[in-house]
Every structure is written in C-alpha cells, then in structure tokens.
Amino acid sequence: MEFSNQPILIWFVVGYGVFMLLLGMYYSKKISSSEDFILAGKSLGPVVLMGTLLATWVGSGSVTGGQNSLAYSFGIWPALMSTLPSLIGIATIFLISSKIKHYGKYTVAEILEVKYGKVASLLAALIIILAFVGIVSYQYQGLAYILNISLGIPVGTGTIIAAVIIIFLAGIGGLMSVAPTDAFSAFLVIFGLIIALPIALSSGGGWSEITSNVPESHLSATGSLSFLQLMGYYIPTLFLLLGDQNIYQRMSSSMDDKSTKLGTVGWIIGLIIVTPVISILAFISRSMFPDIEPGMALIAITSVLPVVIGGILIAALTAFIVTTGNSYLLSAATSVVYDFVGKYLKKDIDDHQRLVYTRVLIPILGIIAFMLTMYFPTVLSVQMYAYTVYGAGITPALLAVFLFPKVTKPAGLASMASGLVSTLFWEFFFVQSTGINSALISVPIAFIVLFAVTLFTKGQHNEMEVPENG
Length: 470
Known about the structure:
Blueprint: H1 9-28, H2 34-39, H3 46-57, H4 60-63, H5 66-73, H6 76-81, H7 83-103, H8 108-116, H9 118-151, H10 155-203, H11 207-212, H12 227-243, H13 245-252, H14 257-288, H15 297-301, H16 307-345, H17 351-372, H18 379-393, H19 395-403, H20 409-429, H21 431-434, H22 439-456
Helix pairs in contact: 1-10, 1-16, 3-10, 3-13, 3-14, 5-14, 7-12, 7-14, 8-9, 9-10, 9-16, 9-17, 9-18, 9-20, 10-14, 10-16, 10-17, 12-18, 12-19, 16-17, 18-20, 18-22, 19-20, 20-22
C-alpha cells in the first residue's frame, strides 16, 4: 500500500494543542515558587501521577523510537520483549519510591552530592545535560513526523516548527502544567490505541496477510538482530529508567507515599497496555508501508484509520511527544540552575531568580537539542546514545545511594567518570564499526569500577541516612 498524507488529521493536532496550551496557561497561574514549577508543589495525586509517569516514559522514545522502530525494523518479538526492561526498572523504583519521595531533593545531582561530594554533583549535571538534550532532540523529530504525515511538511522544516512549540510550552508552566496534560493525554492514548488495534488489523488484511508481507526474520525471537544487538537496545532502556531524574522528580511531586505507590502501580498497568499495542501497530505498518522511515511507523497507521479514531490517536501521540520534550527540557534546565548556577556562579540566588534562570535556560538547551538532530541519522540511534550516557554515567552510582550504602565516595566518582568516558569513547570510535551498542561496554565498566574501588577504599565510607522529611 502506498502511503498518502491526511491533512484533515492536523485539525485534531491543532485542536488538542490549543487545549494543552490553555490548560498550561491555567496551571501556570498557580506557580508562585520554583518548587511549584519543578515539583508541582508536591501536590500530585495517584491518577495524575500515573498519567504523567506513563506519558513521560512512553514519549517519542516509544512512539517513534523504542518499540515502534524495533517492530518496524527488526520484528515483532524484539519489540514486545522490550517492555520487560521497563517493567523491571519500574518494579525496582517501586521498592525504593518512599526513599526517593523523602529524600527531599530537586535533582539527581543533589542526591549524588550528599553521598559523593560536589564533584559528583557537577559531573552529574554534565551527564544529565548530555543525555537529556539528546532525548529532547528526538521529540522534535517525532513531532516533525506528525507534521509530515498530516500536512506533508518536510521533516527538516517540521523539526524546526516542533522545536519552537516544545520550547515555548516547556517555559510556560513547568511540571505544574505538564503533569495534568500528561495525565489527560495518557488516558486518551490508551483509549486511542485500544480502539485502533482491531481496525488496523482489519485494514492490514488480518494477521496472516500481515505476517506474509514482512521479512521472515521479523517473526523470529530476536528478529534480524543478534542476541548482543538485542541487549544493546534493552540495557540502555533499563538503566535510564532506574536513574531517570524525570521519574525521580515525579515521585517527589506526589502528595504522599500512598499516592506514590498507587501512581506507580497505575504506571505499570498502563505500560502493559500501551507498549505491546504500539509494537503490534508498528509491525502492521511494516506490512502496509514498507518504504517509510521506521520512526514514522505508528504515526502512519493513523492515515488508514477512520478519521475520528485516527485523529484522536495522532492528537494523543502528539501530546505524548510534546510533554516528554517539555519534561526533559525542564529537567535539564533545573539541573543547570540548581547544580551549577546556584552553587558556583550565584550562590546567593533566591527562589524567584531560580525560576527566572530556569525559564531562560529552557530555550538555550532547546536550541542545543535541535542541533543534535543534525548529527544522529535515526531516532533510535540518538535514543540509545542518550539512554546510555545517562544509564552508565549516573545510574550505578545513584542506585548505590539507596541500595548499597557502603559504597565509598571515590567509588561513586570513579564509576560516574568511567561510565561517561567509556560511553563517549565507544560511541565516537567503535559503535559504527562493531555494531555493538556502547551500553554493553560502559554499563558493566561503571559497575565493576563502583565495586572494585569500594573494596580498595572501604575504610572511607560514611553510611548515610535518608532524610525523614522532604
């Protein structure tokens, strides 16, 4: 089947965009402090928390990269199994969610500073910026694909438009406005995906017809990937999630421990519904549209659905992409303000100035993210780079704070540095020639260094108690 643009779908995108803008402006009026902007005033109930956790994690990384690209490029089983790393990560976070909630810190770097000192805070801020601007960059590409599907706008032009939209919305209301729109979008996309699945199966001619139109390797357990290549996609996902500052900030934004627990359970349920359906729809798209960009697979399906269903789905996917971009831009800007500006450039910074600096930094970091879109060839490639930089550079040392309190300060610093350096070294010099994702090298190095250095410096540790009040 030849793909054709569906201009009518843009009206659903525009309509939902206006709704998000109005909702954002409404909630922005409730902001009176930097805590309101960054942690939504610690007021999120379980339903909103579940929605914002799901929308943040299942953003463009899933609907244009992740499950979507894996299903389209390599096969149905690699995509379906890619939900497992996320479930493992969420289960681990669930176990330590109370500790995260009561830690009382705005950024991951602040947590690391308590355990490992100021150098760790600076290093963490650098890693977060390197990773999060990468994540923001493929949200731009995801929104550009939607503009291409609906209006035929070239992806390059659409990326510029997307950058402007995401930067603007990120600067309006922070998490106070992002969280409610996330929640609404999460429930809308669950509805849209469930309704779209049987219609897409029918449009594709049924499962037998769909499977007959894809390469035979796309039906095997690892698709067209080797086991090592498959792990190269799963490990970065797991280790980003285990230490993701965005997730930790949302945990800290809940109103109480009960809300945190219920919200996390809801997140798991939502993930179990959403990610397999994304995988199947992208696989159907591979059968129907074999010559499109992999990142466009799920979005392209909206063109064969009834207008109302396709419109609802593409609007919800747009919201997922935009709010994920907003969240990671906000989180990166927060790190710069709290972990660098407030500690080294302007130590007497007050709360209002923090808010102003955060809003000023959002467009600066947003422009850097746009520049990254010109370096990486696909959504999946920049996604794996960003996930690995963070997962190797921060997650091992961060998990140790909550799970291995006897890890020493030198060990934490050495782990962070070795994870970052080995990731960048492998990305620039070996990933293309070997086809092996840097996560398979850098994550084990970071853990080995963490525990090896601890053994040699174990007399230097100071066990740390988690603060009782956040």
